Input
Amino acid sequence: MEVTPWPCPLTLFENYLESKAGIQPYQGAFLLHYLDKIVYPDISPALLTVAGVAVCVLNLGFYGWILLGRGFRAS
Output
């Protein structure tokens, strides 16, 4: 369904059932509706910055340990 201009039949059926149940059906894409909060959680920018820097520091430390530990022994 991603390569065609038509909506997914299951999405149409889901929206139909939600409207029959008195629930306002969501508008837009399925992935944006259900996975947006999982992929893009509501986290403060400061926490995201700290987490990003921590991942980079750990990654650089790991590669430095590999290069220094194994690099000089192989030479």
About this structure: The chain has a mean pLDDT of 82. Residues 15 and 21 are 10 Å apart (CA to CA).
